[in-house]
Write a structure and sequence with these properties.
Layout lengths: L1 H22 L12 H15 L2 H4 L2 H12 L5 H17 L1 H10 L2 H19 L5 H28 L6 H30 L1 H22 L17 H4 L1 H17 L1 H14 L3 H29 L1 H19 L5 H27 L8 H26 L8 H33 L1
Helix pairs in contact: 2-8, 2-9, 2-10, 4-5, 4-13, 5-8, 5-17, 6-8, 6-17, 7-8, 7-10, 8-9, 8-17, 9-10, 9-14, 9-16, 12-17, 12-18, 13-14, 14-15, 14-16, 15-16, 15-18, 17-18
Length: about 425
């Protein structure tokens, strides 16, 4: 009887172990960190950036064209609101798009975002008044880009671990390549076929790239079984994250001022020929291709936030120096250096956020919160500079000093994040 009782206890014990194993939920699948499917996501996300940030970063061409032609009766500040509102929606729709990605609505975001961008470009080609342009370019394209932006970053992050900064850098390089190609397409075609048809060609290029993205991109992690809030309160209790978000706000408030006004500055202040001045934006954006990839390689070794802080400091110094540049050679060198360093900031921002998140499944949610600060800075920074810049007297100094000071403030905040992080690591290790 004792033997039978012992055997029964052993059986029950084994049965409990089996039952416990069956009840334990399986963990997330291992991160591939490479392979065909993972790199296809990078290709697809690259085209998403090509047709989101690529379009937003091309607004300097639209700014110059609108001021000299279609919207010549409007002030620079009024015109810049179109581009900044477009950029604001691009990043701030992420506060909804990020959680929706986490919930498993990735393909809905892809389809809706792609349609809005293409429709926005086609309707922009028909617009003739300020409010028509604002609705087509600022609202419709901005909403579409916002639907695509957060998922394009979040999905790549889930496929890579040690190569995440490099993969994100290649993804972000799509924005630089797009902002090289689109200004050249507009500048070369507009005089030949007119602005409406040049814009339609941009729309067809965007359609081609977005179709590729929709065909190859697939999510890796299953959606959570329990619904989460769109805003995770833990983000606001994280001191490093709050400091980082404030740094994003200050940084982006000043970062885009030279990008939006570089063409006008070259024409009005330096006397560069109109045809040549449009290519300065292409030079700036071309150099940012390398700025999004090379710093990504360094970030995988030295840390994303560390590299981003250095590049932010370089941007601040260059913005101050810009007001002292009065020749073509100097402005070309500025465009190369500023494009490289600003490109690094934009590509490393998502991976810097990723280092502060307690749970990778919340990446989309925390990224959306961070980019709400980015979008707010982008929304108000350039229009304020437009008020400070006086085109009648060709005075750009006040606007550029304002932008440089904002970027300097961002550098200070990023440095504080690094100091706080190292203090936390020291406390935990002790």
């Amino acid at each position: 009887m004792a033997a039978e009782s012992q055997h029964a206890n052993e059986f029950n014990s084994d049965d409990s172990v089996v039952k416990l194993q069956e009840d334990t939920p399986p963990g997330p699948p291992p991160i591939p960190n490479g392979g065909l499917k993972a790199w296809l996501q990078v290709v697809g996300a690259h085209f998403l950036w090509f047709n989101t940030w690529g379009i937003v970063n091309s607004f300097g061409v639209y700014q110059a064209y609108y001021e000299s032609d279609l919207l010549s009766n409007r002030s620079p500040s009024e015109i810049s609101w179109i581009g900044t509102f477009q950029g604001f929606l691009l990043v701030c729709v992420g506060i909804v798009g990020g959680p929706l990605f986490d919930y498993g609505y990735f393909h809905y975001l892809m389809v809706v975002g792609s349609l809005l961008i293409v429709v926005g470009l086609m309707t922009l080609s028909l617009a003739t008044t300020y409010w028509q342009i604002f609705l087509a370019q600022g609202l419709c394209i901005g909403l579409g880009a916002g639907c695509l932006f957060a998922p394009s970053i979040a999905i790549v992050a889930t496929y890579f671990s040690t190569k995440r900064a490099l993969a994100t850098g290649i993804t972000a390089a799509g924005g630089s390549i797009g902002s090289v190609i689109y200004p050249i397409v507009l500048r070369r075609l507009a005089p030949q076929v007119g602005f409406p048809w040049a814009t339609r060609v941009v729309g067809f290029i965007a359609l081609f790239g977005l179709v590729i993205s929709n065909l190859v991109m697939r999510t890796r992690l299953p959606p959570p079984k329990a619904a989460r809030r769109f805003v995770d309160a833990r983000a606001f209790r994280s001191v490093p994250f709050v400091l980082l978000a404030i740094g994003f706000f200050l940084n982006v408030a000043g970062l885009y001022i030279p990008i939006f006004y570089i063409i006008l500055y070259a024409q009005r202040k330096i006397g560069v020929a109109e045809d040549l001045s449009f290519y300065l934006l292409a030079v700036l954006n071309a150099s940012s291709v390398f700025g999004r990839i090379i710093p990504g390689l360094l970030a995988d070794k030295f840390g994303s936030l560390e590299i981003m802080t250095v590049c932010t400091l370089i941007c601040a110094l260059l913005s101050y120096v810009l007001i002292a540049i009065h020749n073509l050679a100097g402005i070309v060198i500025f465009c190369i250096l500023y494009g490289f360093s600003s490109g690094a900031i934009l590509s490393l921002a998502p991976t810097s956020v990723g280092k502060l998140i307690p749970d990778l499944s919340l990446f989309g949610t925390w990224l959306g919160i961070a980019f709400l600060f980015v979008g707010t800075g982008l929304l108000i920074g350039t229009p304020i500079a437009g008020v400070l810049i006086n085109l009648e007297s060709n005075s750009f100094s006040n606007g550029y000093i304002f932008g440089a000071s904002c970027v300097s403030g961002g550098t200070v905040m990023f440095t504080l994040v690094l100091l706080v992080q190292r203090k936390i690591i020291k406390i935990c290790s002790s």
